[in-house]
Amino acid sequence: MEAVVSVLVALSSICLLNRDITTYAAPAEIGDSQWKLIERSGWCARPPKDRATFAGAAPFIIIHHSYKPGMALSESDCQLAMQQIQDFHMDERHWSDIGYSFAICGDGNVYEGRGANVVAAHAPHYNNRSIGLLLIGDFTEALPPSSMLEVALDFIQFSVDCGFLREDYILYGHRQVRNGTICPGDALYAAIQKWPHWQEDVEDIAYL
User: Fold this and answer.
1) Per-residue pLDDT tens for 98-124?
2) pLDDT for 126-139, tens place per residue?
3) The whole model's pTM is what?
4) Which residue among 119, 135, 167, 191 sits deepest, i.e. has the most Cβ atoms within 10 Å of its Cβ?
5) Domain range for residue 187?
6) What CATH number did the domain enclosing 25 receive?
7) CA 81, CA 113: separation in Å to the nearest integer?
8) Would residue 119 count as lying in a domain?
C-alpha cells in the first residue's frame, strides 16, 4: 500500500488553554481507505509530564479497546473521548500522559496518543518496544464497525511502511500480555486472531 501524505492546514478544534497546541498533523490515504492522522494538537492533548523514546522499529503491536468511553462517531466526540482517556490516565492513574500510542475512533480517523517510538504505558514489559493501538469503544459483545477495523489494518501497514513497526512484527491482544484483563473485549479479540501477524504463543520478551 502507498501512503499519500499532505500537510493539514488548520486545527480541527480550538484547544483549551491547558492543552498542547503543537501541531504537525497530516491527513493520510492508505489503499482504498481514507483517514486523517489527528495529531495531539488536533484533539487538544495536554502536554506530557515527561517523555522517553526508544530507537528503531517496534517489534510488537498490542491491540486494546477502551471499554469506557464507549463508541464515538463524530470528530468532536472522538476528540472528547481522547481527552477523557488522557485525563483519567494522568489524573487518576498518575501516568505522565495518555497510555496508548495511537487510537482508532468511530469517525474513521487515527488519533495520536504518545506517538511512535515513544515509551508508552499500555502493556508492562512491552511499553518500550511496541505500538499500543486502541480502538475506542466497548467490544466485549459486538465488533467495531467494519470501517474502524479497516482503518486499524491500514494503519498497521502504514506503520510498517513508515518504519515505526517491523515488517516481521508480532500482534497481540492486550489480554495475552497482561493478566487480569479481558481487553480488547471478546468480540474484537476473536477478530484480531484472523489479522496478519497475530500470534497465539507469547514470545520471550527478549525478542527484538
Assistant:
1) 999 999 999 999 999 999 999 999 999
2) 999 999 999 999 99
3) 0.85
4) 135
5) 3-192
6) 3.40.80.10
7) 12
8) yes
